[in-house]
Design goal:
2 copies of one chain form a homodimer. The first copy, chain A, is of the alpha/beta class. Chain A is 45% helix and 13% strand. The first copy, chain A, starts with 7 loop residues before the first helix and ends with a helix.
Amino acid sequence: MRTIEDYRDIVGDGVISNIYRKARKLYGKHILEINSTYQGGGVAEMLSSFIHLMNDIGIETDWNILHGTPDFFEITKLFHNALQGKPANLTENKRHIYLQTNEEFYMYTHISHDLVIVHDPQPLPLIKFYKKGQPWVWRCHIDISNPDKNLWEFLKPFILRYDMAILSNEKYKKNDLPVEQKIIYPAIDPLSPKNIDLSDEVIEKTLRKFDVKTDKPLITQISRYDLWKDPEGVLEVFKLVKEKVDCRLILCGSMATDDPEGLKVYERIKRKANRLIRSGDIILLNAENNTLVNSLQRRSAVVVQKSIREGFGLTISEALWKETPVVASNVGGIPIQIIDGENGFLVDPYDIKDCANKVITLLQNPALAEDMGKKGKEMVRKNFLITRLVQDYLDMLSQMLL
Amino acid sequence: MRTIEDYRDIVGDGVISNIYRKARKLYGKHILEINSTYQGGGVAEMLSSFIHLMNDIGIETDWNILHGTPDFFEITKLFHNALQGKPANLTENKRHIYLQTNEEFYMYTHISHDLVIVHDPQPLPLIKFYKKGQPWVWRCHIDISNPDKNLWEFLKPFILRYDMAILSNEKYKKNDLPVEQKIIYPAIDPLSPKNIDLSDEVIEKTLRKFDVKTDKPLITQISRYDLWKDPEGVLEVFKLVKEKVDCRLILCGSMATDDPEGLKVYERIKRKANRLIRSGDIILLNAENNTLVNSLQRRSAVVVQKSIREGFGLTISEALWKETPVVASNVGGIPIQIIDGENGFLVDPYDIKDCANKVITLLQNPALAEDMGKKGKEMVRKNFLITRLVQDYLDMLSQMLL
């Protein structure tokens, strides 16, 4: 298992020493993280690395997962979409299942920690059931700037009980929320199986295993099968690109256990791209395999992220870390990671043509692509690695506990 | 949410008062239950009811679930089968994943409870990683009387660290295990959605929803799709029965998240019974729906449980509680629940013909079937309801903690 020392070569002694220094005053503190999925999706992945490192530096950090029935996850997926602006039909029954699942968790989860961090809407109302004996922080990973009004009014009373809300973007701050709002960018773990250096041999072997041919340049989007990721838009972009440069499109997405919509979207794409899938020009992958994602991000000519909404968009940092140039929508946290024209291209999420042109530019200019990839990696090293996240959380903990 | 008071009408004031009395000396004690699945399978179901009642009577009981990747669950399924006697190939890699998953859980799960109860083989080695500061009890729900030798030698050192092992059957006690071995029978919750009284209207509506026609007598086996449950044997039995009495066979099984083998078995049955499925005489259901199971158990003419091995076989008690007669294999905990010829029939698990004859006997003798069903219900009321389980655990806790 990884320790903070293992990151010295990547971030330098200064950062490592800084982390130990910040941790020193927090020794013996006992933190609890609660989210709703162990596997699948960026939050679970980040938590897994983060919690290991926190324990490694001496901050006892527990992880507890709110369990629910498929019903519950359908409701919270609806909430997720509604917080991002899609109108939702909030029935009495849905509220009931949502609250009951949280109350059941409360029944069998005793909390005596020094601070509790609750992730995203699924376990948000837990706070209502506990006799609060410590600060609670709501860590929201999604874009809540334009939520469905009814849902927001339903959820806000729970948020008001928290001592702090952590958001991923200055733009997500809410004027109507009189709770301290702090911005902490998420981060990737450069030593996780998804991001660690791979030999050419491993990359080739992995891609062969999943039948990904590398005889043409690869355009790749890595994302859950989700309407907000606009996989259908990616198909349109690809068709335009292919008129100029022969290439292959890879859509690679896993199904998270808390995302029942995924399968439906996947099947729609499959129908729509039927002809190009049969010809082998489009490859749909549905695998929960970090080495595959890592290999694709390393071997692709261009990574695309055509999201309509994006909590933060860590797939951008993942690709940039591998020196692969990225063309991505100018939404959510993506412009925080990409300076347009510097370390990648930003495009309007509805401008298929511009997106295609930028992909073509990169395919036709290997020197530009290489330069952007290099700058991308440095951007990530400075701002979006897990060691920076650890430092930000240590600062937050110091503020709340000392 | 249910409270212990809700069971008064079913078990009587004496039992309820006895539970409160046993709980009194344990107030303030803090118990932790650890298993590896939240949904699917009898253990999760029993825990869910049990933990609620323990908290209701004032014993703070937490529930924590060991999470793992699909790899992990394939390995522990293999362990499960090998503990029941199927030879296993125990590679170094399998041991490694098994231990690593447990070590990771340890990393982010702080334990400061007064007593820890660990269920089944999945989280068994956890105990190795903790600095033990309280009694630990291993609660084994499966038949470990003839385990694969290599696996047993690998697992035994972990069991030795426990203060007690709880088994479901006197026959499962191990001579070579110098740890206190206690027998506690599992139990069903008469107020859970799977067992609660249903009106005829709800039963009819539910069966219609799942396309189960009730124009002929129903023979039903409720079981995960698992080789140990011998669904293929049930097909053979059904063919013999159908020569004498026109009837329909229902196989109803859900897929547990920790049971990757289920799908394979399901598909094999589907092929084998293809013709009878198309004619509508066999219905394969694959649903995680308690009201469906409840309705089937209430509406069936005969419930069959043709298992080759059975940890305990709570589906027997479930069916008996609904006054439905049962023909079941004389294995595992089944003869504890059925007195042959009294409240059901026991058959040799390999004697297809005898099993078919007993089913035919019940189909042709409604008065006998009714009498056995009534006796079955009283057997369950006395011995296999959750209130009895609560009392046994309170006794165990008193022994360990007072």
